[in-house]
Amino acid sequence: MSISLFYFVAFLSIFFALLVIFAKNPVHSVLYLIVTFFTFTIHYILLNAQFLAIVNFIVYMGAIMVLFLFVLMLLNLNESQGTSKSAIVKMIGVIAGMCLVITLVGSLKALHVSDPLVLQTQDLGLVKNLGKVLFSKFLLPFEVSSLLLLSAMVGAVLLAKKDIKQA
Fold it and tell me: What pTM does this model have?
């Protein structure tokens, strides 16, 4: 993995995350969030975590972002409504920001520079290895969760089904 490519993608992640925060239009903000999640997917691919990359791409970029866009389209965001915040809300925001900065500074002071983390096996994040572990060591929890999801699906279908009255 090229370290310059990693830093370039990290810069893009931070840049688009800042655009999410500072965008005035909420739809543009959601689109910047999609690009930010895509840069996270690139990070996962660079770190050889294929499963996390696929899940991030499908779940976050697909389902959740579509949900955000639908919510934004259904909201009535009129420009005529005033968006002025009270002084209490602004003060709470400043206090929350200061708490975040204090936490980050404290975390960075407690962080000790050490040797870089070297994985014992380079293929740790591969889907093949995840499948081996899921179907050997964690077979029972995997099957129980699949039965739970199946029962939730059947319940959702039964709740959504229209009751046909016999005439």
Answer: 0.59
Q: Which amino acid is residue 19, in one-letter code?
A: L
Residue ranges of domains in the chain: 1-76, 130-161
CATH code of the region 1-76: 1.20.120.1200
Q: Which pair of tokens denotes residue 6?
A: 């990693």
The CA-atom distances, in angstroms, between 152 and each of 88, 144, 157, 158 are: 43, 12, 9, 10
As to burial, measured by CB atoms within 10 angstroms (0-12 exposed, 13-18 middle, 19+ buried), residue 146 is exposed
pLDDT tens string, the chain, 167 residues long: the values are: 588 898 999 999 999 999 999 988 888 888 898 899 999 999 988 888 888 888 888 888 888 778 887 877 777 666 555 556 788 888 898 999 899 899 988 888 887 766 565 656 666 667 788 888 888 888 998 898 889 988 988 888 887 777 666 55
Length of the chain in terms of residues written: 167
According to DSSP, residue 86 is labeled P
